Amino acid sequence: MKIQQLIYFKITSEEQSFSGAARKLNVSQPAVSRVVRELEIELGVDLFHRGRVGLRLTPQGERFLVGARKILSCCEDAVWSVKHAAEQQRKLVVGFIPEVLKTFLGHTLKKFRSDHPGAELIVRDMLPGEQIAALRSREIDLAIFANLPPELGDEFEMLVLRKLSLQAAVPATHPLSGENAICLRELEHDTFLAYIEEKFPGRTQYIIKNCVRAGFMPVLGRSQAASIVEMLGMIGAGMGVCLIPSDIGSHPHPNVAFLPLKDEIVPICRVAAWQPGNGNPMLHRFLESLKENDPASP
Fold first, then answer.
1. 3 burial class (0-12, 13-18, 19+ CB within 10 angstroms)?
2. Whether the Cβ atoms of residue 234 and residue 240 lie closer than 8 Å to each other
3. Contact, 201 vs 128, CB < 8 A?
4. DSSP element (H, E) containing 113
5. How far is CA 187 from the centre of its chain?
6. Structural domain spans, the chain
7. How is domain 166-266 classified at the CATH fold level?
């Protein structure tokens, strides 16, 4: 088995077509198809369901993808560590979402700089989907966002930083906007606004899951938000409602009301995620700073 086969297989699984993988790899489509088929013959299983509308991983393909990603990650780590041995002793790149800066991250950054004055610390404001992509490409060492999608649990190491309750965000003109707290089912007949999946992986499914637990399937609007600010703007314009982490209160909007929920809601977690093979000593020292800051407590 060759590394090239694993790369072609991984890209094909992400693009869900041989033609898309060929474009990304800058090779011919027959070349990709041949390499993947040779891999299937070597393994003795079909890795993809081949249909008219594209490719889908078989159960065997899904299991093999987990292992292939780990192997490729180890190879990339080895190359990266050799090329950047000197730099990695002092440089750390952290991706984050703005909400955590006012709660625990700001204090941790200050403490880390004080404890490690020789470290080159770079912080980047990035959406969750952007952070996941940047982790994979090793543009950042650490990602801090909300709720790592379950399917990525085998790809990244994770540290839960905080568990947050949800609140309903409704237009200020909504009949329930003056309530101190509501039951989620009281919004059953409202339109729920969703997030763009590529920007906030798994967030819309998380909202649906909580609504189903409350006894109803939410009606999703056509418009989708690419950021928290966009979501608040859409709610303020009366386009619908949404479930928002409790720390979003740091983003006040004059036309949005934030309502605590009486329901037992599946909490949303602020997490730190990193590549399993990242040996950057600054990363592990920063993780220690996060733990010392005791972010797990509200």
1. exposed
2. yes
3. yes
4. helix 106-115
5. 27
6. 3-83, 87-163+270-292, 166-266
7. D-Maltodextrin-Binding Protein; domain 2 (3.40.190)
Q: How many CB atoms lie within 10 A of CB 126?
A: 21
- Per-residue pLDDT tens over the stretch 115-126: 888 888 999 999
Tell me if residue 65 falls in helix, strand or coil: helix
Look up residue 76 and give its two tokens. Answer: 């990339």
Q: How far apart (Å, rounded) are the C-alpha atoms in residues 18 and 170?
A: 44
Read off the pTM. Answer: 0.64
Identical fold, 87-163+270-292 and 166-266: yes
Q: What is the DSSP letter of 101?
A: I
Domain range 3-83, CATH class:
mainly alpha
- β-pairing, 120-125 vs 91-96, is parallel
Q: Name the DSSP letter for residue 214.
A: T
Exposed, middle or buried, 135 (CB in 10 Å: 0-12/13-18/19+)? Answer: buried
pLDDT in tens, 8-49: 999 999 998 999 999 999 999 999 999 999 999 999 999 999
Give dist(CA 230, CA 260) in Å, integer: 21
Domain topology for 87-163+270-292: D-Maltodextrin-Binding Protein; domain 2 (3.40.190)
